[in-house]
Known about the structure:
Elements (H helix, E strand, L loop, with lengths): L12 E5 L4 E4 L1 H6 L4 E4 L4 H18 L6 H9 L3 H12 L56 H14 L5 E2 L11 E2 L12 E5 L3 H8 L39 H5 L4 E8 L2 E9 L17 E3 L1 H7 L4 E3 L12 H4 L7 E3 L3 E3 L2 E2 L2 H11 L8 E11 L6 E12 L8 H31 L4 H29 L5 H25 L4 H4 L10 H15 L19
Antiparallel strand pairs: 1-2, 1-3, 4-5, 6-14, 7-8, 9-10, 9-13, 11-12, 14-15
Helix pairs in contact: 2-4, 2-5, 11-12, 11-13, 11-15, 12-13, 13-15
Amino acid sequence: MTPSFNLLDEPWIRVTRLNGAPDEVSLLALFREATDIAGIHGEIASQDVAVLRLLLAICHRAMGGPEDLDVWEDYWQDPGSLGRDAVDHLERHRERFDLRDPERPFFQVAGIHTASGKLWGLKSLIADVPNNNPLFTTRIAEGLESIGWAEAARWLVHVHAFDPAGIRSGAVGDPLAKQGRSFPIGTGWTGQIGTVTVMGENLERTLLLNTVVCEELDGLNGVDPASDLAPWEREPDGPARAPAREPLGPVDCYTWQTRRVLLHGDDDGVTGLFLGNGDRAKPQNRFLVEPMTAWRYSDPQSRNLKAPVYMPRKLPTDRAFWRGLSTLVAQLSPPITVKGAGEVTPYRSPGVVDFYQDLMYHEIVPASGLILLHAVGIEYGSNESTIAELVDDVLSLPAGLLGQKNERLLAVVRGAMEETEKVADALWVLARDLDRARGGSPDTGKDAGRRAAAAFYQVIDERFPRWLTSLDQEDSDRAHARWRGLLRSEALEQQEALASAVPDTAFAGRGEGKGRADVGRALLFFRRALNKTVPAPAQQDAPVEDAERTPA
């Protein structure tokens, strides 16, 4: 009997039910029961979003695009219809979802091998095994010798999406391979972006909210749904790569075959794999086909290509998700003037956010309430050859920010973000000046400033998202005044902590004239900067005679 592990029938996707119970389901069961599932919860968040993107590719193909908003709305108004059509689509391509098929294994290349027959170990497949650092993983000894086919399926989807860059095996039959090696082509496509997902009340709602109607969105409206096919609808890949191929739409992006893979094992599980480079993913201007990330204007890239170029915005690991709010709601950032290009938009919102805004405009979803956004991304290490850190964050966005009459609310949020940054800068300068007063060097002063700003944001990163959520229920001007009060209160607490930590000698200070640094002078400059940014209630700002003091 031919070995088989068909993803349509075998439980392999880890989910959480609406009642909080964990479960493991097959593809068919997932779509049939999507209204009873809260979300995908596997080993790590990047695995979850990789599997979600696979599910979204299935949704796009099952819904026929969707070709227009009317088709999409029919699914929205008829719970369960998405599942039925997804099951029909999967059944039509049943044979292409078998992990162990000898001729067309799912997301793999049948028979691919090196001239030497060398295989990779499982640590190259499993992302939560730190390279050469086994002390920080629960997988030791037997855990890396073999894994079940269900878990291997999850990591197979993940490796195409997030595999680090580096030299991979050179396949026999790949003309780009040299001496048995395939040289770096970059990380998996999803690893090059910071993914943003709009979350619904159950998995079916989440899938629908992120299955965008391309013709409704600026940029994506050039996608032809009939040409945007999934790998299971095309002839299987061979060892040879397609270095010049470009993605044709969201389905192509969600299932981009960044690697050439073949799992090896037996009925007991997977013990090794062939892992080679696949199709290279170029990031320039992929907003035309990729809806799940924000985009930033790149001046160097634009000058190089002599045309406007937007690059995906990766999620920084040193900043909370809310601090990138201006990339989620592009209206928060006014146009910038670029020499030779005129006015350009500094950021483009994720297509999934723009789509929700379009649904609000057509009164399909409420124009009030909160929109839950989930951000997931990976920061890579040296030469992007290792996984260094995982970003996994959520943000509740007031729907009013995306509304038609949102100018006042946008102004309040923009002002609050700018004021927060200025207060952080003032604390940075205060810490630097106090360090100078105690005899520190420019380097120790910068370190002190960074620590002070980080301590401030540690508090603000918890409070700003809660304040943002409150805008759905509170008058925006009153909420802005409350935020200013909170900023001022926290800044004064941080000031007190910084000043109390310096030695008595710092009060006497160092230097003479304009270069003098002492505690009293540092506090004076800080209070002036704070009063200018967030005045005390009923305070009349006095003119600030001294020049602005900003972080060096």
